[in-house]
Write a structure and sequence with these properties.
alpha/beta, Rossmann fold, 6-stranded mixed sheet, 4-stranded antiparallel sheet, 41% helix, binds adenosine-5'-triphosphate, binds magnesium ion
Length: 313
């Protein structure tokens, strides 16, 4: 079946899914059960059951401290849960190290971009390759064994850099890129391993408005070419604009899920969310194209970028 049709079918099959937290999906790619992680008495993540539908874009939203990033960390092997299990694409991945999770096809990007500042853009991309024989001692010593594979990796990296319009920057240090370009680089690097599921932690944070549209386009392209997307985002315009399904977390738990329009009109969700986001209008999408909002966004992004700079070690 053509990718387009697969996506269409996956999205349409969600219409019949009940709007209850933890509801089963018609074709789940990731299924988590009883996943809990606490930090000094705080239940950062306390998810009874969650299923992520294959071939669609799912947004994970919730106030600051809801446990979204911790959930990503757990699923991708960057942190260990106190209890719980999860199955990705039919394979149990609980307790599996991050590198093996990536090999299984689940990759994530970070809220604060992890692009290595003192490596070039191309070097960063090459790090994302699934297996680099050059790193194995034996093959490293026998150049004919790895040279073709190295070339293949470089070709793939260049093709992705072109797709993300970063090819002209391939020899620049990642540290010299703008916040938005670093987000693009992280997304491009994640694709080096041909993932089945891409998890994006706040892809829009710190992104200049000029790049916003292209980032949105890249994310929908991912879905439309067969990659499942799960993303965390506070920008409700973006969530409403591109997600097929929305999961709401609060205090570690999944408290609501459903199509974006319905979830964002849900009073309980608005209450849970507005505790932390008084300025977020969950119900209005029309503002997306209005100049005033873009200016406000630009300001917020400039702040976010300054904030990110401060947090750097
Ligand atoms: N390494 C850690 N040590 C101690 N507490 C932590 C740690 N990581 C997360 N927490 C706590 O766990 C809770 C969930 O944090 P998390 O970063 O997952 O939230 P989040 O939903 O991603 O929030 P935000 O929207 O602000 O990014 C918070 O109370 C946070 O302070
Ligand atoms: Mg977070």
């Amino acid at each position: 079946m053509p990718a387009e049709q697969v996506v269409d079918q996956a999205r349409r099959s969600l219409h019949a899914v009940a709007r209850t937290p933890g509801v089963p999906k018609p074709d789940p790619l990731l299924v988590a059960d009883g996943v809990r992680r606490s930090f000094g008495g705080v239940n950062a993540v306390d998810v009874d059951h969650l299923e992520v539908q294959k071939h669609v874009i799912t947004a994970l939203i919730g106030p600051n401290g809801a446990g979204k990033t911790t959930f990503f960390n757990l699923m991708t092997g960057f942190d260990r849960p106190d209890t719980g299990s999860w199955v990705f694409d039919g394979t149990p991945l609980g307790g599996v190290a991050a590198s093996r999770v990536a090999k299984a096809g689940m990759v994530r990007t970070f809220q604060l971009t992890k692009a290595l500042a003192r490596m070039t853009v191309l070097e960063n991309m090459r790090l994302g390759a699934r297996d680099q024989p050059g790193e194995n001692l034996f093959t490293a010593l026998v150049k004919p064994l790895w040279a073709p594979r190295e070339r293949e990796i470089t070709d793939k990296a260049m093709a992705l850099l072109e797709r993300f319009k970063l090819d002209a920057k391939k020899d620049d240090f990642a540290g010299s890129l703008s916040g938005g370009q670093r987000k693009l680089l992280e997304m491009a690097r994640a694709l080096m391993s041909d993932p089945t599921l891409v998890m994006l932690d706040e892809p829009m944070a710190g992104v200049n408005p000029a790049l916003t549209q292209s980032l949105l386009g890249h994310i929908t392209d991912l879905r439309d070419t067969g990659t499942t997307v799960l993303f965390v985002e506070h920008d409700m315009h973006m969530v409403r604009h591109i997600s097929d399904w929305v999961v709401v977390m609060a205090q570690g738990q999944v408290v609501a899920e459903g199509p974006p329009g319905e979830v964002m009109a849900d009073q309980a969700v608005i209450d849970a969310y507005l505790g932390a986001h008084h300025d977020t209008d969950l119900g209005d999408d029309a503002l997306l194209d209005e100049g005033g909002v873009i200016d406000a966004e630009a300001e917020a992004e400039a702040e976010a970028e300054a904030d990110t700079e401060e947090k750097k070690p």
